[in-house]
C-alpha cells in the first residue's frame, strides 16, 4: 500500500513544541477508485511529520475489501507491511513474489529506486503500512526485499511485544534498519510497563481491543526522555520510535529525496519508464505519477 493521492502535498515542518504528550489525529484517505478502501493517515500529520525515521503511517480495517495497488515507484525509504488480519501479495521489480500474513514482515528497501505492486483477494483486511526514511549516507543503497516469517518477542508482565524493526528491551529484529529505531506490536493482557529507550521519541497506535489511554484512530506521540510506558487492558498496540531524525527531506507522492530537482527527476524517470525496473505478473498498467505542484518543493524538518 502506498500514497495514491492524485494531488499529494509537500511536507512542511519547523521547530518542535516540547509537549509531554500529543494526540495526532488521522485523516481519512481513499485508496483507489469508486470502491476505494479508506485508510487513516496519522503520519505525515498537520503538525508532526516524523517519529524517529518513521515518516508515513496508514492504518486500515478491519474492513471487507480487495486491495489492488498497481505498480508504482519508491525512492529513499523502506516500506513496512504489517497485518493484523488478511493477506497481501507483493510483487516488485527485483522479481520478488511474496505473500505476507499476520505476524509476518514484508520489508522493502527502495534505495535509489524500486517499483512494486500489492494485491489481496476480497477478504477482511486489517493492518498498517509504514515508511522509514533512509538517512543521507544510505539513501542510495541497492534496492532489496526481505520477508521475515517469524520475529522475536519481548515478554513482560502483562504484555508480549513482537519486535518488527530495530530493538526493544534488548530484543532485536533481524530486519535491516539504517537508523536507531523500534517498531513493535504489543499484545497487552493485564498490566505492566514496556521498556523504552529514553533517547527515542515514540508513537502508540491502538490496533484492536481496549488499552487504557488509547482510542482507535489517533496516534499518541511521546517525546524523548521516557524509560518506559505503562500499559493495561486487553488489546494490541503498535509502537514506533527512534532517535529524532536530524535531516531535512522532501517527501512527495511515493518519493523521499532532498530537493525539488531530485524529486522532479525521479518523476520524469518513472513516467519515461526508466530507473525503476518493471513489475512482472501484475495484470494492469503502472500507476502514473501526479503532476508536480506549481511551486518548488522545499526540504523541511520533522515538525511543522
UniProtKB/TrEMBL annotation:
Cofactor: Fe cation
Residue intervals of the Pirin N-terminal domain: 39-132
Manner of cofactor binding, per the entry note: Binds 1 Fe cation per subunit.
Gene3D superfamilies assigned to the protein according to its UniProt record, in alphabetical order: Jelly Rolls
Protein name: Pirin family protein
Species name: Nonomuraea turkmeniaca
Pfam families in UniProt: Pirin, Pirin_C
Keywords assigned by UniProt, alphabetized: Iron, Metal-binding
Highest taxon above the source species: Bacteria
GO molecular function: metal ion binding
Amino acid at each position: 500500500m502506498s500514497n495514491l493521492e492524485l494531488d499529494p502535498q509537500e511536507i512542511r515542518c519547523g521547530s518542535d513544541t516540547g509537549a509531554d504528550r500529543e494526540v495526532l489525529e488521522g485523516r481519512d484517505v481513499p485508496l483507489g477508485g469508486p470502491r476505494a478502501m479508506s485508510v487513516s493517515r496519522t503520519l505525515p500529520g498537520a503538525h508532526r511529520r516524523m517519529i524517529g525515521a518513521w515518516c508515513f503511517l496508514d492504518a486500515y480495517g478491519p474492513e471487507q475489501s480487495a486491495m489492488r495497488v498497481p505498480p508504482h515507484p519508491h525512492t529513499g525509504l523502506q516500506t513496512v507491511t504489517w497485518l493484523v488480519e488478511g493477506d497481501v501479495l507483493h510483487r516488485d521489480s527485483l522479481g520478488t513474489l511474496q505473500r505476507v500474513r499476520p505476524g509476518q514482515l514484508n520489508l522493502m528497501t527502495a534505495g535509489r529506486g524500486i517499483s512494486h505492486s500489492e494485491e489481496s483477494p476480497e477478504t477482511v483486511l486489517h493492518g498498517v503500512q509504514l515508511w522509514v526514511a533512509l538517512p543521507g549516507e544510505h539513501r542510495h543503497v541497492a534496492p532489496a526485499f526481505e520477508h521475515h516469517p517469524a520475529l522475536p518477542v519481548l515478554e513482560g508482565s502483562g504484555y508480549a511485544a513482537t519486535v518488527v524493526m530495530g530493538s526493544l528491551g534488548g530484543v532485536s529484529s533481524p530486519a535491516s534498519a539504517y537508523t536507531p529505531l523500534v517498531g513493535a506490536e504489543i499484545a497487552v493482557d493485564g498490566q505492566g510497563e514496556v521498556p523504552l529507550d529514553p533517547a527515542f521519541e515514540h508513537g502508540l497506535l491502538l490496533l484492536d481491543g481496549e488499552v487504557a489511554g488509547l482510542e482507535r484512530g489517533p496516534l499518541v506521540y511521546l517525546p524523548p526522555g521516557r524509560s518506559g510506558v505503562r500499559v493495561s487492558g486487553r488489546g494490541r498496540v503498535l509502537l514506533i520510535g527512534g532517535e529524532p531524525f536530524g535531516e531535512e527531506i522532501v517527501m512527495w507522492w511515493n518519493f523521499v529525496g532532498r530537493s525539488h530537482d531530485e524529486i522532479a527527476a525521479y518523476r520524469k524517470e518513472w513516467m519515461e519508464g526508466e530507473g525503476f525496473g518493471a513489475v512482472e505478473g501484475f495484470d494492469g498498467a503502472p500507476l502514473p505519477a501526479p503532476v508536480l505542484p506549481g511551486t518548488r518543493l522545499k526540504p523541511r524538518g520533522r515538525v511543522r
